[in-house]
Amino acid sequence: MQSQCDLNAFSVIHRDNALLAVHKPAALLVHRSPIDRYETRFALQMARDCVGQRVHAVHRLDKATSGLLLFALDGDSARHLSRQFEQREVEKHYLALVRGWPPVQGCIDKPLRYKADALADGPALRDAAPQPARTLFRRLATATLDQPLGRFPQQRYALLALQPETGRKHQIRRHLNHIGHPIIGDVNHGDRHHNHLFHAWRGYHRLYLAAVGLRITHPQSNQALELRAPLQADFQSTLAALGLSVPVDAVSA
After folding, report:
1. Could you give the angle at the alpha carbon of 141 between the alpha carbons of 137 and 143, nearest 5°?
2. Which residues have a catalytic role annotated?
3. For 162, which of 18, 94, 170, 196 could close a Cys bridge (C-beta 3.0–4.6 Å)?
4. For 26-40, 85-99, 126-140, 213-227, which range has the lowest pLDDT when averaged over its residues?
5. Longest pairwise C-alpha distance within the chain
6. Are β-strands 66-72 and 209-217 bridged in parallel, bridged antiparallel, or unpaired?
7. In whole angstroms, what is the distance from residue 203 CA to residue 197 CA?
8. How many domains does the chain have?
9. Is position 221 within any domain?
10. What pTM value is reported for the model?
11. In a domain, 79, yes or no
12. CATH number of the domain that 137 lies in?
């Protein structure tokens, strides 16, 4: 079931008696945060307004990341879904546009220390030891851009399908930077020269990372449910400008 909610292109992907899946645009917070205390728009509020009832956030996306965001519509479903995320029973799929041409496929297995925020997090989180973190990736397509940068007359980029097996803070962004292929538009973990190039060329100031698929167990029927979200229009148009398209099997395991 798919419908549209007339609030800043905030689209509903799926809705039933237990859950609501929406497409969160980039630059939208999931809920209130002391990090962005002047923000007035939140996905949680927008989802509630779309369906006219209380919703429960069962996971989160970074503010800069667009794509599939899941809410529960009652307390029991919220607990069921939250437990699936906590126990790593949810299959999560992302797409990212990165600098360079990574290997055709691979697994980034690098423990990550929690990146604590001075305002929102306490001493225990700031002093936590690194935690295991694994991200699978698959290269879907490559492109060359005829734009000079530094000593290179052309630039190389790739579209990746990603499947994080763990859920550490900024895991995909940090892992891709670790292997030397940062996501375009990533201010904190990316390459500012390529970020500036894309902003000047395309006119979009965004992170090219999108949550495009989830596979969960439905909290009421206990049946597997696959959810997919399209890319945001600016992401799609940038891929088209690079001559890239998303394969039909982009979010398959």
Report:
1. 125
2. 62
3. 94
4. 26-40
5. 58
6. parallel
7. 10
8. 1
9. yes
10. 0.91
11. yes
12. 3.30.2350.10
